Amino acid sequence: MINLDKLNTINWEKQNICILGAGKSGIGAAKLANYVKANVLLSDIVNKKIDIIENNKFQYESSGHSDKILNYDLIIKSPGIPNEIDILQRCIKKQMPIVSEIEFASWFSKSQSIAITGSNGKTTTANLVYEIFKNTGLNVLLGGNIGTPYSENVLYELQNNDEFLHVIEISSYQAEHLMHYNPLISCILNISEDHLDRYQTMDEYVNAKL
Prior knowledge:
The chain is an alpha/beta fold and 210 residues long.
C-alpha cells in the first residue's frame, strides 16, 4: 500500500489511483495523475460523457463505483461526494489512503500558495488577492473552489516548468481530506452556520474548516 509519509520516494508510474467523481476537480486530478504516469481510474455514479483529450488515457467508469476500486493504492475524493457512501466506507475499513484533490495536487507543486476559506466572502477575497498580486507582475494562478481546479493549475505549472503563486479558494468539503498540504498563508475569514445538510453538527463543520 502507498506510504503517504514518504511522498518523495513514491514511484508514481507504479501506483494505481482511483478518483471518485468526474466533475471539474475529478477530471483535473485525473489529468494530473495521468501526467505523472500513474495508472488512473476515474469513477462516477452518473452515466455521462466526459471530455478526455488524447494525451489522457485513464480508465473511466460511470453509473456506479465498482468493487475494483478496492484494489487501488490511493483514493482521491471529489468534494461533492459524501463520506458516508458505501464504497468509501469499505475503503476506510481496508485502511486505504483517501485524500482530497487539493492535497493530491499539492504534492507536485514547487510553488507557494495562499489558501482562503470561510463561510462567506471567500470568493470575493480570493479574487481580490489574485488581482493584487497579478498587478505586481507576479506569476499568479487562481483556482480551487473558484474557476480552475488546483490540480489543473499545478499541471500548468509543471508543463511550463515555472513557479507561480497559487491563490486557492477552499471549501469545507475540499478541506476534509487534507494531510500534508502546507500553504504559505492560510486564511479563515469567518465561520457561521452552513452546510448542515452535510455535517451532523456545527462542531463537525467547524472542524472541517480548521
